[in-house]
Amino acid sequence: MATQLADYLFYIVALAILVSQAFILRATAQGMKHGGARAAARPVPRRAALEWLYAIVPAIALVALLWFSWKTMHPDMIELRGVVPPARTS
Amino acid sequence: MTGPVTERTGDLRPETGARRSLAEDLLALTKPRIISLLLVTTVMPMYAAGSPDLLTVLIVMVGGYLMAGGANAINMYFDRDIDDVMARTRTRPIPSGRMTPIAVLSFGVASATAATFLLGRFVNPLTAVLALGGFYSYIFIYTRWLKRSTPQNIVLGGAAGAFPPLVGWAAVTGVVDLRAIVLFLIVFYWTPPHFWALALNKQVDYGRAGVPMAPNAWGERATIDQMLWYSVLLVALSLLPGAIGMFGIVYLGSALVLGAWFLVDVARVWRHRAGTQADWSAPAWKLYKFSLIYLALLFAAMAVDRHM
Q: Which residue from A36, B10, B282, B298 has the least number of CB within 10 angstroms?
């Protein structure tokens, strides 16, 4: 696939992933609120911090995936930043 | 709620209690229908990664079956208390009294041990380690830790079912790289909409067993919202292999068509999220069935694309 086309596809994919992940976190919050209201009928104790952890860990994995995917698509850009020597002053 | 679904599909109906042979019971312990999809997501990545010889493919299939079957048997050992109260699991070998718990546990351990030997000796050690990773995460992370403690049990717990692509990829390449991780995450993000579509129709069973599935704990509306966004994420993620040059136009076209179909099906459920069970029950069941076909065809498209 042509590089520019691949870039566009990557940006669309990244945007869709980030937006849907944000909505997933929002829906998780709503679900927890709803679950709290039903808590009296639930045998499982509500552990909000853990619930957030379960929701956030996959989100972090996705951000890492996007970063490494972009790095794979543009290895030259990443390497150049490290190897370009500083400009001489003399 | 279980009734209409059972009558309509026929495949989740409790059995009549007819006697079964030991071989049939051992086969039932492995949950062969579930494993068939796991094998698709194991073997297709092998062909997506390269051109494996037939013997390696056969060994990976047998090893994968034994490992997943062992995990399923041990899952039945740990869940024997709740299997007895759920209609769809009541006829399993332990709750029906046809096998003792210790026999089931022994079968599961023996099966996984044989799988580890097969994969480690005849494929490569990494493949065996990854298959064991799936085995342990299913038993300890999903069954023992998450299943009865959080409505997000099948989110993180879904990682267990996402190991097969890693196993298949490692069997051919000997490594786990970014491409293998992308396949892992595709299965990982496919799991919530797939499983919650089933859970929506099985709330009574899960509620009776005290398993806090999302529809029971969060309510249907919040669950269906999550299903929609997980599906959008899944479809976007399925296009990533095209962007990073992993597959070409055949895969990308297939992912787009299958993804659009998946989104249409989940939208049909979402449209009725504020309605009653009578509104979303049938679309949710349709989504559940299609999600199985979706994953199989998506992974088949990877293999086809690689060899065209």
A: B10
The whole-angstrom separation of Cα B193 and Cα B40 is: 19
Q: B163-186 burial string, b = 16+ CB within 10 Å, else e?
A: bbbbbbbbbbbeebeebbbbbbbb
Length of chain A: 90
Q: Which of B146, B189, B218 has its CB closest to that of A35?
A: B218
Instruction: Check residue A37 and give its pLDDT.
Output: 53
| CA diameter of chain B | 55
For tokens 């040059």, the residue is B245
Q: Show the tokens assigned to A34.
A: 């709803």
Any idea which residue has 């069941």 for tokens?
Answer: B285
Give the burial class of A60: count Cβ atoms within 10 A of its Cβ; 0-12 exposed, 13-18 middle, 19 or more buried. exposed
A chain contacts of residue B217, beta-carbon cutoff 8 Å: 31, 35, 38, 42, 44
**ipTM score assigned to the predicted complex:** 0.84
- Number of H helices and E strands in chain A, helices first, is 3, 0
Q: Taking Cα atoms as reference points, which of B207, B189, B197, B192 lies closest to residue B270?
A: B197
Place of tokens 């976190």: A25
Q: What is the largest CA-CA distance in chain A?
A: 77
Question: Tokens representing B304?
Answer: 């086809």
Is residue B77 within 8 Å of B109, Cβ to Cβ?
A: no
Q: Identify the sign of the CA torsion B52, B55, B59, B64.
A: positive
CA A72 to chain centre: 17
CA distance B184 to B181: 5
- B182 contact residues in A (CB cutoff 8 A): 65, 69
Of B217, B221, B233, the CB nearest to A42: B217
Instruction: Provide block-wise average pLDDT over 10 residues at a time, chain B (308 residues).
Output: 36 48 93 94 97 97 98 96 87 92 97 98 98 97 93 92 98 96 97 95 88 90 94 97 94 98 97 85 96 98 94
- Taking the C-alpha atoms of B188, B149, A47 and B232 in order, what is their torsion angle to the nearest 10 degrees? 20
User: Could you tell me the sign of the dihedral formed by the alpha carbons of B65, B70, B73, B74, in that order?
Assistant: negative
State pTM to two decimals: 0.88
